[in-house]
Specification:
Low-confidence stretches of chain B: none
Number of strands of chain B: 7
Oligomer: heterodimer
Helix content of chain B: 25-40%
CATH architecture of the largest domain in chain A: 3-Layer(aba) Sandwich
Shape of chain B: globular
Strand content of chain A: 15-25%
Mean pLDDT of chain B: 93
CATH architecture of the largest domain in chain B: 2-Layer Sandwich
CATH topology of the largest domain in chain B: Alpha-Beta Plaits
Order of helices and strands of chain B: EHEEHEHEEHEH
Helix content of chain A: 25-40%
Chain lengths: 434, 146
């Protein structure tokens, strides 16, 4: 029997869901036009008034919002409510430029927690579950976002934050933790340290995990599931839109359900910005229709995915986004071939002997791009002779070539020399930008 | 047969020194060693005084370590003696994967060649009785006394 957090909403007929969306969208447009000068000016520049939006399809006519809009109005310029109604601030790390700031009203926090509660239900949690939140707490949305969700859900919340991995494991064992929320790379780190501490997955009571905040391949999923003896669910979100729990996989692992009563998703063509036909892959663009503090109109997430509107086997009617391969700004262009780091990961992990400890180094030598994949040598790869290791080099490269159409220099490195992640893993070093 | 330690080494300054430091700390003696090197990595092969202790000490330092079985062939430290051994091996149709040599102060076994043979397990019978003299572990450990 499929369990739901909010069955009437999660399984609502699409017709009715669209009616809910339209009503909320119209209110949102009125709101931002009246209260956010930046949006008002952008609409006026296009000669648009709120009244021009009459149907959901009219949404495509509104201007796109990007990270740059948030930067231009830093820190609070896109907030739609007076500061006395804002109860929390989160901010991006600012690694790719000026940091972006997001604000939440009390209702926003509650809506976010409600989305998270739906996700936890899909991950098989119930009120007796013990959920360890090992996303970083602080300005990053991961920790507190998951935390408020688990509390609202009613499970036992273990607010571990990230880092101090041995202590995380001790708590997991001693407290009988059943669910883990963290980045997939940190989950892997935890699995490795578990083994180093002399434990096995049988010492854990762990059933499932909600892993997100970075792109990860199905190979990585299999690795995490095997090593921790759990089911691994992909959770999606981004701080600008809300944080984790914008979308999450159900038990059928066939895409991530987007909570469409709160978010309208569109896919646009990366080149033209026009909506693509149903089922095609492109840029995910999200409009928030419940948020009060920072409503976003047609926000370009830079995540590349496709949408599936068919009712899922789980009974949910909310659209499913395909597991995103990565952000468009993470895409590597190697000698003219577009490739996402997660695709390289897929290839690597399709070879049994390869461990998920790798790093991608891109450089430019004599005006030609070079791609080097550094991989920690594993017990099974290390034979007594040079020939054996070179055989693996060849095998990996052949598969890269046949699957992705690019060749890479494979460089084996010693165990534990590639940095372990406690949050978002740094998989790519691109020396071309320097 | 003799147990050999095989260590994966990245071509990075100081890696070899880490290995020797690790063995020195544990008072482990190196009887013989060789390195097979490529552009990016090397494979260090060693015969040491306390194999098991060396393996665990190196593993503790996160080195990738394997154990391989090799043979130690004793011969006279004189012109042509290695040639004689290799000739016999060829007559027996035995190929060598790799080899490295060292000398000792032993009166009877003053030159020793460590070898890894192709299909080693299957070919050992052929060597027994061929006149090629293989040393066992015990003898190797107290070479200088015999």
């Amino acid at each position: 029997m499929e369990r739901y957090w909010n069955k009437p909403i999660e399984t609502m007929e699409r017709e009715q869901l669209r009616a809910v969306q339209l009503e909320k969208l119209l209110a949102t447009i009125q709101n931002v036009y009246a209260n956010v000068p930046h949006y008002r000016e952008k609409m006026r520049a296009k000669g648009m008034l709120p009244g021009d939006i009459k149907t959901l399809d009219n949404l495509h006519d509104l201007p796109i919002t990007t990270k740059q809009d948030l930067r231009d109005t830093y820190p609070f310029g896109l907030f739609a409510v007076p500061m006395e109604d804002i109860v929390r601030i989160h901010a991006s790390s600012g690694t790719t430029g000026k940091q972006t700031v997001v604000g939440y009203t009390r209702n926003d926090i509650d809506m976010w927690a409600d989305c998270m509660a739906r996700c936890l239900t899909m991950a098989g949690a119930d009120r007796s579950s013990r959920v360890q939140v090992a996303y970083g707490y602080g300005l990053f949305t991961g920790g507190l976002g998951a935390h408020y969700g688990t509390e609202k859900f009613g499970a036992v919340t273990v607010p571990a934050s990230s880092g101090n991995t041995q202590r995380q494991i001790t708590m997991m064992i001693d407290f009988g933790v059943t669910h883990l929320c963290c980045t997939p790379s940190y989950a892997l780190n935890i699995a490795e340290v578990l083994q180093e501490m002399g434990y096995t997955k049988d010492d854990l009571n762990l059933k499932a995990g909600c892993f997100g905040a970075e792109p990860w391949s199905d190979g990585m999923r299999a690795e995490i599931e095997n090593r921790l003896g759990i089911r691994a669910y992909d959770i999606y979100g981004l701080s600008e839109v809300m944080g984790p729990a914008v979308a999450h996989e159900c038990g059928h692992h066939n895409g991530l359900h987007i909570w469409e009563d709160n978010f309208i998703a569109e896919i646009t063509d990366p080149d033209t910005g026009m909506p693509v036909r149903d089922g095609q892959t492109g840029d995910l663009v999200v409009t928030t229709i419940s948020k009060e503090g920072l409503p976003l109109i047609r926000y370009k997430t830079r995540d590349i995915c496709a949408l599936n509107y068919e009712t899922c086997e789980c009974g949910r009617t909310h659209a499913r986004m395909s597991k995103p391969a990565g952000r468009s700004d993470d895409m590597l262009i190697i000698r003219g071939v577009n490739v996402f780091p997660s695709q390289i990961e897929s290839v690597l992990l399709s070879i049994e002997e390869v461990l998920p400890h790798y790093q991608i180094v891109v450089d430019r030598v004599n005006n030609a791009d070079t791609l080097t994949v550094e991989i920690e040598i594993s017990e099974t790869m290390f034979t007594d002779d040079v020939k054996g290791i070179e055989g693996f080099e060849k095998k990996i490269n052949n598969r890269m070539n046949s699957v992705l159409g690019i060749s890479a220099k494979i460089r084996f490195v010693e165990p534990k020399t590639i940095a372990r992640s406690e949050g978002k893993a740094k998989r790519v070093i691109d020396n071309r930008k320097i | 047969m003799i147990k050999q330690i095989t260590v994966f080494l990245e071509n990075k300054p100081g890696r070899m020194e880490e290995v020797t430091g690790c063995l020195a700390d544990k008072k482990i003696n190196i009887h013989a060693l060789s390195i097979a090197d490529t552009a990016d990595f090397g494979i260090l092969r060693m015969i040491v005084s306390d194999h098991d202790k060396a393996v665990s000490a190196l593993k503790d330092k996160n080195f990738m370590v394997k154990t391989a079985d090799v043979i130690a062939v004793a011969m006279g430290h004189s012109p042509g003696s290695l040639h004689d051994v290799l000739k016999k091996l060829r007559e027996l149709d035995i190929s060598i994967e790799y080899m490295y040599a060292f000398t000792s102060r032993s009166k009877n076994y003053d030159a020793i060649v460590i070898m890894r043979l192709e299909n080693q397990d299957a070919t050992l019978d052929k060597i027994n009785g061929s006149g090629i003299q293989m040393l066992g572990r015990e003898l190797l450990d107290r070479l200088n006394e015999v």
